[in-house]
């Protein structure tokens, strides 16, 4: 399992290894699935969840019991839809009606689909789709309504794209088309999940009044995937980077991958990253509306991964050559930090946004725009978690006259201090003087006292012997 | 951004002081463009520069430190509203700052009150809350102003006192409404402080160094956006005047209030500088830039200051510059967004492009003159 290369990597990056160990040892799921009470067919659903999803199955399985099964089924239904849409071996006239009717199909007892091509990796899910239908009909009607609605809209959106010859040949044209595509495949998922969370009472209903926030949640994840997968998609003959963006940098889409166009390709990728990055602050805003820990984790983990992925892709020409990924250690670190509270997730965003900003190239056509997008995320974080307290009002003088007065007062009080000191010194001087005078009048021998004091001082600092002699001498003299 | 589309109704008679200056002339242009029916009177010390060709603009030479003359001008013009932008250059002496900013502003307020002006907008400065010991992270209008001994820049103190004088005159008499706009880092065509200094640094080949970690966000604002903020404030005061004696809700109030106006696009300090340099023709790759830590640069600055002090000069790197380029200084403009409906008209990158192009054109003209 452990390759020598990764062994070497973690020897040099012990921090990442530490994160992996921390996550594996210390992470306790917020909620755990109760497998013993699940019927066989539901277990099969979770089996499909593990099979079809790499990143989502873990977070879904830790969801609050109220939402565990609905979200799992929601995922499987959309995965089924996606498997039909993706499969190029299914003729369009057969594919389109299924996509458009999928919201009804999920209510048809015993519905299965065997016509996927043999290479479609998730075909088994559709072959046994009856288990999904069986359990979909058992969840709360309110959840069914939401899932059905999203399925209907997504199925129709996908069917529109399948019908669009232009899209199939040339890929996505404008930025608006690109965002519309991301809306169908991800923005709608954001909406569906949000409605499920609110229905279950696990998120703030105000989230439904700010639809752009849930849209951004989906858009951000999808756009980051599209950026990262540029090479993989090219190999699969698919293009999701909109022509409106790449045509500013190169004439033909394929030119992006030519080594001589490295700088142009990087400029193009930063424009794509900029488009995604402008959604980042919305995502943090959305996360602030979640009330329940497992739901928070479910949403926050993918977002943190996305912002970290954006960072590794930024100014990285490798994305045009291979699939660029964050390391396992970094991923574990992100999971640790994304399963606690919003403040830590904000720290994650700040860290990666700053890393992006530090790599920003001053000669990139979108240099300042990227800098501003990073600044916007930082300012948003500052607005919800201020890094400093408002300074205390030290009551600055409100007018020039008042300032002058303050100055004068300060000066005055300084002179007052000086006068006071002088007065005390003079008083002391007079008293001492008069006391000495009275003593002298009364016959005090200051000359003796003076020599004695001198010799005592000498005794203190000089030799002890001499000191004693001096004293006896002085006292003998006084006896005469 | 809709407000730029159709010509908006007349603002009546508007007096703009400093209307031949950098910001003032842009305000004049925006009023002409957006409210073509408005009669504009410009009052400035000298009205020979930046004159607008529109017949709706008339120019008056005058000195706002001369209270009697000022009163006479306002009584003659009888403006409905005043936009008071006049302020001396930052580099001029203390005495002048006090004379113009404090005394001049008080004279303006008095003259406006006497002339029956309805709305009075004062151009303050975002630096009025600047405190050398505090960073400005997303600062808003509830932060205390800093003047007097704690304020290192006397200029800023005079802006604080002028703003206080204007805002405390609000609703005295009850028909006299005032507010203050606090712009941050104004740039654009005709800017004499920020962009020209940065372009000069490029010409002196000083772009190879940068001080600090460059994670400090800074606000700069394109001049037309500031002008836009002034006009929105003016429209709000005119509206409030119409509904007198009703006083708006505290959360909606504009009169007697101060507003930060920025581009709402805080940028990392050195990113801004590098963008300016790039626009002015710099091609230095980021990889060849030397990064100095703030502490190290501070020591060097101190040493240089001493050495140059002995020679009687000012060095290129001073401790103050180190501090300025490594501090955080950005504001929240939520209050202006909510109460004035403000949002910037021109993005910061476009604003910088316009400002730098303006400088390069001047440079080219100079070159041509020399060549002839």
TrEMBL record, chain A:
GO BP field: ergosterol biosynthetic process; farnesyl diphosphate metabolic process
Pathway: Terpene metabolism; lanosterol biosynthesis; lanosterol from farnesyl diphosphate: step 1/3
E.C. numbers: 2.5.1.21
Superkingdom field: Eukaryota
Cofactor(s) needed by this chain: Mg(2+)
Catalytic activity: 2 (2E,6E)-farnesyl diphosphate + NADPH + H(+) = squalene + 2 diphosphate + NADP(+); 2 (2E,6E)-farnesyl diphosphate + NADH + H(+) = squalene + 2 diphosphate + NAD(+)
Alphabetized SUPFAM superfamilies for the sequence: Terpenoid synthases (SSF48576)
Topology class, membrane: Single-pass membrane protein
GO molecular function, a single term: D-glucose transmembrane transporter activity
Entry keywords, A to Z: Lipid biosynthesis, Lipid metabolism, Membrane, Multifunctional enzyme, Steroid biosynthesis, Steroid metabolism, Sterol biosynthesis, Sterol metabolism, Transferase, Transmembrane, Transmembrane helix
Transmembrane intervals: 417-442
UniProt-listed CDD domains: Trans_IPPS_HH
Cell compartment(s), UniProt: Membrane
Enzyme class: transferase
GO cellular component labels: endoplasmic reticulum membrane
Protein task: Squalene synthase; part of the gene cluster that mediates the biosynthesis of squalestatin S1 (SQS1, also known as zaragozic acid A), a heavily oxidized fungal polyketide that offers potent cholesterol lowering activity by targeting squalene synthase (SS). Catalyzes the condensation of 2 two farnesyl pyrophosphate moieties to form squalene. The presence of a gene encoding a squalene synthase supports the identification of the cluster as being responsible for SQS1 production and suggests a likely mechanism for self-resistance. Catalyzes the condensation of 2 farnesyl pyrophosphate (FPP) moieties to form squalene.
Similarity comment: Belongs to the phytoene/squalene synthase family.
Name this polypeptide is given: Squalene synthase
Provenance organism: Clohesyomyces aquaticus
Phylogenetic lineage: Eukaryota, Fungi, Dikarya, Ascomycota, Pezizomycotina
From TrEMBL, chain B:
Cellular component per GO, a single term: endoplasmic reticulum membrane
Residue ranges of domain 3-beta hydroxysteroid dehydrogenase/isomerase in the record: 15-284
InterPro entries: 3Beta_OHSteriod_DH/Estase, Lipid_A_modif_metabolic_enz, NAD(P)-bd_dom_sf
GO molecular function: 3-beta-hydroxysteroid dehydrogenase [NAD(P)+]/C4-decarboxylase activity; isomerase activity
Keywords (A to Z) from UniProt: Endoplasmic reticulum, Isomerase, Lipid biosynthesis, Lipid metabolism, Membrane, NAD, Oxidoreductase, Steroid biosynthesis
Gene3D superfamilies, per the entry: NAD(P)-binding Rossmann-like Domain
GO biological process, one term: ergosterol biosynthetic process
Description of how the protein assembles with itself and partners: Heterotetramer of ERG25, ERG26, ERG27 and ERG28. ERG28 acts as a scaffold to tether ERG27 and other 4,4-demethylation-related enzymes, forming a demethylation enzyme complex, in the endoplasmic reticulum.
Subcellular location field: Endoplasmic reticulum membrane
Protein name: Sterol-4-alpha-carboxylate 3-dehydrogenase ERG26, decarboxylating
UniProt topology in membrane: Peripheral membrane protein
The family this protein is said to belong to: Belongs to the 3-beta-HSD family.
């Amino acid at each position: 399992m452990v390759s020598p290369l990764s062994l070497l990597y973690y020897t040099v990056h012990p921090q990442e290894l530490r994160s992996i160990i921390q996550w594996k040892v210390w992470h306790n799921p917020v909620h755990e699935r109760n497998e013993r009470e699940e019927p066989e067919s539901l277990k099969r659903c979770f089996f499909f969840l593990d099979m079809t999803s790499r990143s989502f199955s873990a977070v879904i399985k830790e969801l609050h019991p109220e939402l565990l099964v609905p979200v799992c089924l929601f995922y499987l239904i959309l995965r089924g839809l996606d498997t039909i849409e993706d499969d190029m071996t299914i003729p369009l006239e057969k594919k389109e009606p299924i996509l458009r009717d999928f919201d009804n199909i999920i209510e048809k007892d015993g519905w299965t689909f065997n016509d996927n091509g043999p290479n479609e990796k998730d075909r088994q899910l559709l072959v046994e789709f009856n288990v999904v239908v069986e359990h979909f009909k058992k969840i709360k009607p309110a959840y069914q309504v939401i899932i059905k609605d999203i399925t209907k809209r997504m199925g129709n959106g996908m069917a529109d794209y399948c019908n669009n010859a232009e899209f199939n040949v040339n890929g996505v044209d404008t930025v608006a088309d690109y965002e519309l595509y991301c809306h169908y495949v991800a923005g709608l998922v954001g909406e569906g999940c949000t409605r499920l969370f609110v229905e279950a009472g696990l998120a703030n209903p105000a989230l439904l009044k700010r639809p752009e926030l849930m849209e951004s949640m989906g858009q951000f994840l999808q756009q980051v995937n599209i950026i990262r997968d540029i090479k993989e998609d090219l190999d699969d003959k698919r293009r999701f980077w909109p022509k409106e963006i790449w045509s500013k940098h190169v004439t033909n889409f394929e030119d992006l991958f030519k080594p001589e166009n490295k700088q142009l390709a990087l400029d193009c990728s930063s424009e794509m990253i900029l488009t995604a990055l402008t959604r980042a602050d919305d995502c943090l805003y959305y996360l602030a509306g979640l009330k329940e820990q497992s739901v928070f984790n479910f949403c926050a983990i993918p977002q943190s991964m996305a912002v970290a992925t954006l960072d590794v892709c930024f100014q990285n020409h490798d994305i045009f050559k291979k699939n660029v990924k964050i390391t396992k250690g970094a991923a574990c670190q992100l999971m640790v930090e994304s399963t606690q509270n919003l403040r830590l997730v904000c720290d994650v965003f700040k860290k990666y946004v700053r890393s992006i900003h530090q790599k920003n190239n001053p000669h990139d056509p979108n240099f300042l725009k990227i800098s501003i997008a990073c600044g916007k995320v930082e300012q948003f974080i500052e607005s919800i978690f201020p890094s400093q307290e408002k300074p205390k009002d030290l009551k600055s003088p409100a007018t020039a006259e008042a300032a002058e007065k303050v100055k004068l007062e300060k000066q005055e009080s300084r002179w007052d201090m000086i006068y006071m000191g002088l007065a005390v010194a003079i008083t002391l001087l007079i008293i001492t003087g008069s006391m000495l005078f009275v003593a002298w009048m009364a016959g005090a021998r200051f000359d003796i006292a003076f020599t004695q004091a001198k010799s005592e001082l000498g005794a203190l600092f000089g030799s002890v012997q001499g000191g004693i002699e001096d004293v006896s001498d002085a006292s003998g003299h006084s006896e005469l | 951004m809709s407000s730029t589309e159709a010509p908006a109704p007349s603002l009546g008679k508007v007096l703009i002081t400093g209307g031949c200056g950098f910001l003032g002339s842009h305000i004049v242009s925006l009023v002409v463009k957006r409210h073509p029916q408005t009669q504009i009177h410009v009052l400035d010390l000298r009205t020979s520069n930046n004159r607008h060709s529109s017949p709706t603009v008339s120019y008056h030479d005058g000195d706002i430190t001369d209270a009697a003359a000022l009163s006479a001008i306002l009584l003659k013009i009888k403006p409905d509203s005043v936009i008071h932008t006049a302020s001396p250059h930052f580099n001029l002496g203390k005495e002048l700052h006090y004379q113009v900013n404090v005394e001049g502003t008080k004279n303006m307020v008095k003259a406006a009150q006497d002339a029956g002006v309805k709305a009075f907008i004062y151009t303050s400065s975002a630096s009025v809350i600047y405190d050398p010991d505090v960073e400005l992270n997303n600062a808003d209008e509830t932060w205390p102003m800093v003047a007097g001994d704690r304020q290192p820049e006397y200029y800023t103190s005079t802006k604080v006192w002028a703003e206080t004088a204007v805002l405390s005159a609000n609703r005295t008499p009850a028909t006299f409404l005032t507010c203050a706009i606090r712009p941050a880092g104004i740039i654009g065509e005709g800017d004499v402080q920020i962009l020209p200094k940065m372009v000069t640094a490029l010409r002196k080949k000083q772009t190879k160094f940068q001080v600090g970690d460059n994670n400090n966000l800074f606000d700069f604002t394109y001049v037309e956006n500031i002008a836009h903020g002034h006009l929105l404030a003016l429209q709000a005061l005119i509206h409030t005047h119409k509904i007198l004696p009703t006083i708006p809700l505290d959360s909606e109030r504009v009169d007697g209030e101060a507003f930060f106006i920025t581009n709402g696009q805080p940028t990392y300090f050195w990113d801004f500088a590098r963008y300016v340099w790039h626009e002015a023709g710099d091609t230095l790759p980021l990889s060849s830039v030397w990064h100095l830590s703030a502490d190290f640069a501070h020591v060097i600055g101190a040493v240089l200051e001493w050495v140059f002090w002995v020679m009687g000069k000012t060095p290129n790197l001073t401790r103050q510059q180190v501090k300025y380029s490594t501090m955080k200084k950005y504001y929240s403009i939520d209050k202006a967004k909510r109460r004035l409906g403000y949002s910037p008209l021109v993005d910061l990158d476009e604003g910088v492009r316009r400002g730098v192009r303006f400088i390069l054109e001047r440079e080219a003209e100079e070159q041509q003159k020399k060549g002839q």
